[in-house]
Amino acid sequence: MKKTIFSLVIALLCLVNLNAQDKADDTNTNKWQMRFRVLAITPSPGDDIEGADVDISTSYIPELDFTYFFDKNWAAELILATSKHEVDVEGTDLGRVWLLPPTLSLQYHFAGGEVKPYVGAGVNYTIFYGIKSGDAADMDYDNTFGFSFQAGLDYILSDKWFLNLDVKKILLSTDVNVDTGEGILPVDVDVNPLVIGIGVGMKF
Q1: I need a labelling partner for 176 at 20 to 30 A (CA). Which of 28, 56, 81, 201 fits?
Q2: DSSP per residue over 7-26, as a string?
Q3: What is the DSSP letter of 86?
Q4: How many CA atoms lie within 13 A of 11 on its CB side?
Q5: What is the pTM of this model?
Q6: How far is it, in rounded angstroms, from Cα 162 to Cα 168?
């Protein structure tokens, strides 16, 4: 998957070169943008179970998002994606879990020419599903709210197309009930993923 992301970066850079003469100015009046991105989602769980190191695997996934502009600076973004992660605690397999984390962010887009940076913050609601318990008898994750912060930039190719680089940090924790076979062990697990995305967007 890393090779796929590297190939996508090279392809996007080639696209920039081929479209260098077809740049849009800052007069765009489109209210909507749609992006297709490839994401690398890297959790940062830290020490959660009685001082033990919890490891949650990195996931590489496709993502679709939509942005609505209230004016030329302020916008709202909704991302749609789902990811699968393997969970281990110092050699003990705690199985896998799928995350569905729709995230709504309020963004401020800075004025610019062909490069337009932006920052944003928002709220996230994560749904945990498709749980496989691994070495535990059973696992149960609570769906939960979190907060997100982001920074990114759009590289304008034309009056319709652009490239995008986006970085998000999602502050996310969940309560997990681990059935050890001898009783239920309640655990507070920090996920706190760093989400890096690259892709192409369209204005409409």
Answers
A1: 81
A2: HHHHHHHHHHHHTTT----T
A3: E
A4: 9
A5: 0.81
A6: 19
CB atoms under 10 Å from CB of 42, counted, come to 15
Tokens 């995230």, residue?
Answer: 103
| Position 100 pLDDT exceeds 50 | yes
Name residue 102's amino acid: P
Q: Are strands 138-141 and 161-171 parallel, antiparallel or unpaired?
A: unpaired
pLDDT digits (tens, 9 = 90+) for 113-130: 899 999 999 999 999 999
Amino acid at 145: F
pLDDT at 24 over 70: no
Q: Which domains does the chain have, with CATH numbers?
A: 2-22+30-203 (2.40.160.20)
Distance CA 157, CA 73 (A): 19
pLDDT at 9: 46
Residue among 47, 64, 65 nearest 56 (CA): 47
Question: Contact, 118 vs 153, CB < 8 A?
Answer: yes
């599903």: which residue's tokens?
A: 129
